[in-house]
Write a structure and sequence with these properties.
39% helix, Rossmann fold, 23 helices, 3 domains, alpha/beta, eight-stranded mixed beta sheet, five-stranded parallel beta sheet, flat
Length: 555
Amino acid sequence: MNKKIENLIVSNLFLNRQSHSWNKLKNKHNLTFLEMGEFHALASKVKSTSTINIILFLQEMTNNKGSLKINNIKNLSKLIEVVCSKTEKEVVVSFSSWKSVSSINYAQDKSQEIINVSSFIKLLRKIQKKSKNLYLLNLDTFFAEKGFEKCFSNRDYYLFSSKVSSLGLEILINKINEIYLKSILPQSKVLVLDCDNTLWGGVLGEDGFNNIKIGQDGIGKVYKAFQNEILNLSKKGMLLTVSSKNNYEDVVEVFEKHKMMTIKKKDIISFKVNWQEKYKNIIEISKELNLGLTSFIFWDDNKLEREKMKKFLPEVNTIDVHDDISNWPEQLKNNIHTSKFNTTKEDLKKNKQYKMAGKFVQNKKDIRSEDEEINFLKSIKLNPKILKIENSLISRASQMSQKTNQFNFRTIRYSETNLKRIIKDKNFECRLVNLKDLYGDHGIIAMFILRKLNKDYCFIDTMLMSCRVLGRFLDVWIFNECRKLAKKKNYKFIISEFIKTEKNKTFEKSLELNGFKQIDQKYLEKIKVSYKSKNKLFATEVNKYQIKQNKIFDI
């Protein structure tokens, strides 16, 4: 059973702790409510593994002129910065500034102006640049959707001392929970799209090229807006693919020649237009891109197709699309699987890089022997390069540790705060790997971290590689770099641990391929290493390394 995460909650208003809405957080979190307004106690209670919720109702923190008190703002921002530095987990600051006011009172009374929170938000955004574990929620955005008067309750205030209604509390908790869910969800990388009545209105085979609805007045505008939103996701790194039961030539003509199409064929990384089942198409795309099915989102107007996908490929995120297509652009934009906290430079290169991956898979599929494979890999001129993890690369390094699931020996997740601390520790050696070959520049695709155990032994704390470059025996080169680095530091042996998951289980063989042999706990005791593990352990001598695949890199 997984140990629950400690979640500290503090607010300057009373929140109903008995509400069933809190159950959404209780599944994963051990909730600890601090007394109302006890912000000063938070810094002393926070641990490195604590998640934090600071819930602020700024209308309660104003002076008699209706402005936020400067001291309150400064003290709160300092506290939030301290808390962010003390925990490796999420710090969520939620705030509302709404207050009830009549039109008569507002008309000429400046003190009735809505509270100006911009200075407070600016301070928090500055902290956020340094503390990537800080998340901000402006509750008024979400309260407004349901109506402020429904989210606050004078009756509840007098009966239960809670100005926040049961609906307001439910909205607050739902939005906080979405932050936590997004931080642990597998990263969605591929959007699989139907065509008829999804990318355009009508059925191409029946209505014909000139009569499909896209970009014209009325409903055609919705499909145009939907395509625009899809293209926005593509620009942020989402890979676009098509799976449509249709005639290939007819669909290609629409993508290439229809003037109202925002999305062009060049934007589609994999084009599966045929008459086979769509779940089979997705399996093929998954193999082409070396991506697990949990990375896929399926969007189709046809409920039957969605139900088939749920049945045959439950790992795929099948979206239950809104019955009213006018809601699709917002539904796509705001879906938890398509939304992102931030976009890195590497994300922006994804489309091109996965197209390269697809070409590699196609060129390699006819190879029949090990010698042919080695000769092919030598011919594509693999050019990996070691990079030290510097401040400018920490975001990418953290992202890789959070999202890489297949070739990842221990699946340890590192925040940017974690990595900054490790980089400064002399007992750790942290490296990234960039790869170029004849297909192009694949960017930063691997990371390894060595940790000192004693003067003779080091430990592979992290070994991971992007699925985009699997099939190149790049692990051979990376392990050789590990050995070179270990030798430079005068280590004689390297210890590795393999923590098996459903995603990485096929890659244990990489350790045997690279000269590691399984050891047990007694071996560690013999060499006076106190590390204890219930997982498989391996060891290798730094100087012994002769395997056939070395030829690929001329090691």
